[in-house]
Amino acid sequence: MKRPKAVRKESRKLSIIFAADVAGYSRLMANDEDRTLALLERSRRYIDKTIAEHRGRIANTAGDSVIAVFESATEALTCSLKIQQKLTKENEKLSPDKRLMFRVGLHMGEIYTRGSDVLGSGVNLAARLEGYTDPGAICMSEIFLSIVDKSVSGLPIADLGHVQLKNIDTPVRAFEMLSERAERGGIEFRNQTRMTAQKRKVFVLAASLGVVVVSALVAVSLAISLATVNEMAEKNKPPRYRIEDNLTRE
Description:
The protein is an alpha+beta fold. 50% of the residues lie in helices and 24% in strands. It contains eight helices and nine strands. Strands 1, 2, 3, 4, 5, 6, 7, 8 and 9 form a nine-stranded mixed sheet that branches. One of its GO terms (biological process) is intracellular signal transduction.
């Protein structure tokens, strides 16, 4: 009797996740399938090339959607900006009803790999962010935005607040670039990253102070306890033993 093959364990790690798809893809296909497929192929050539140039790896593709992973959040955002700006320029040559507009979602989260595919809640959240944003725009989670390098500064960004995404239990704070909301009332990306960095410093300082305070309290408590034990031991000890001797023997 053959033994069943061992199930291969998936590799889990924290990654930057890029999710993209075409807005209104089904409608475009219904209107003109051949033209839509030709536009998709041309767009995908540029997307795939740009992802590779920024050290990303395409993991999952299905129809009009793309999932890729990056080691660097700054590379992922720079790549996304290049893609959206290039495709927007190309779409300006077409009438609005024929434009092939991508939406992009960016998140940092845990993924696990199965073969060449990536799965997990982090992938799902990136895809939901992408579905929430406008055609031609980029939607990012707060955790992604907090780690992007300040070299990508001076760009308008809209704070969408905490949004409820489909099939995500907890509301997620989201930010948007290259959208009308960002252009109309966005804050500068530089200010947002600085604020986030300050938050991180406060959290780290608070945590450090917490450790110091707790350590001090523990030290005082131990000192009081040892003093009490020593006092009791002095009253009740046999003549030739000390509490330190007992602790050493144990």
